[in-house]
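Suppose you are handed a protein chain with no further information: no name, no annotation, nothing but its sequence. What can you learn? This example shows the usual starting point.
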Amino acid sequence: MRFQPFRPSSRYAEEARRCKHEEQKMLDDPRVFTVGADAHQWAAMWVDEELTTIPLHADSYLPWRAALGMNAPDQPWFELVINAVLRRAVSDGVIAVPEPGAIRSKGNIRDPLTEDTIGITLGFEALRTKRLIAASPESLMYADLNARPELGAHAVVALLHAVSDIMRAPRYL
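A reasonable first move is to predict its three-dimensional structure. Written in structure tokens, the prediction is:
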């Protein structure tokens, strides 16, 4: 018996084409991945007194981790702090997303010599499909965040705007 490669049925192919078209149309909306005007008020509500003098940098993320309720020792990475801030911003409606889901990191950028994480790539995971439907065309580099002078709630808003700028021109998966 000869091996027959999988060939999707025309019904399957049409459904896949229709879903791709809907996702493309949804992501082309100019309001998608924009930061709301109330972002600073939102950030000021949960940024406590201790964080008002601390930047949101890769080398000063430990107090942020505690403020976000990430006290487990298995959560030591700056990437997880960024994911927690983004998860909170999306769930509170501060960043407009195309449909229910989450903006999250989808990969790490590593220094070729030290193998330290120096940035992350982002994606949007739709709740209905549990898969990434949009990916950032460029990375969120830790050096760029570390160069920003903002502290406290201003640092959170700066992070949201950096993520918005990166995600506004997504590469479709």
